[in-house]
## 1
Amino acid sequence: DFDQVGKERTILLSEWVDDFQIVRFEDNDDAIFKMWWPHITDNYIGIRQHGGGAFKLFNRQGKYLGNIGNAGGGPGEYKSLYSEAIDEKNGWIYLASFAWKEYLLKYDMKGKYLGKVQVGENLNKPKIQLLPDGNLALTQLYFHDSKSTMMAATINPQGEVTPCPDVPQHLQIALKNEHSGGFNHEIWHYGNTDEMKFAYTVSDTVYAYDHKA
């Protein structure tokens, strides 16, 4: 309530949270991770590690299920990740590299490498999200002075890419201009809504990607 601005008010946790769960992760040598970001679905918790390392998969009770791919430069390996999506229905996990790759990596739930999902251009800090209809939504930093052709895209389960051709002028970042921030910009995306919502550090706005349109 705007009338409460500037006044002290006690806000109960129950006003924000209906339920919560404390998960104790398995802690054997293979399961240990250096936390960067959790990806939580109905039945799984995936851990993207800080500073690189393999993507770790646990169930919702904290039992370690295995690595999804591994850090490295070989087939199905990666040096650094920036985003992930778990498709429980089809039994697939998608991982997106930090930058300079024109594909997503695809695995099954046991960590077996299934191949690349080609996007068609090098991606710059891509964020991906599994949508309720089974499609993937993707967004990335758009550099107008490089070979970027899309700011967002939809990828169907068959790997077909439909790019969004509209890039708002104020979100077209200069890669080579030191005053623009370039690659230092980030994309904030939490994957906690049915549609893909995200924000760029270049702007103070939260955006929603309408993949059907």
Note: DSSP finds no helices and 19 strands in the chain.
## 2
Amino acid sequence: AGMHTGDTIDYGSVVRGEMTLELEGGQKVHLRQGGCIVQNGTRHRWRNPLTEPCLMAFVSIGGKRA
């Protein structure tokens, strides 16, 4: 549940807090403040492992799924 994809290239950065990126194959990437990711149409979901809110910044550019 919660997995999704997009026809974009996404650049994301954690501004405050922590976030876990879960990929379709079960891989998890834990991001802390200042951490960043680049995705190209990957199937994924986000989970906040903490009780405090997380603030992320994203830039999405139209693209084709990998």
Note: The chain has a mean pLDDT of 93.
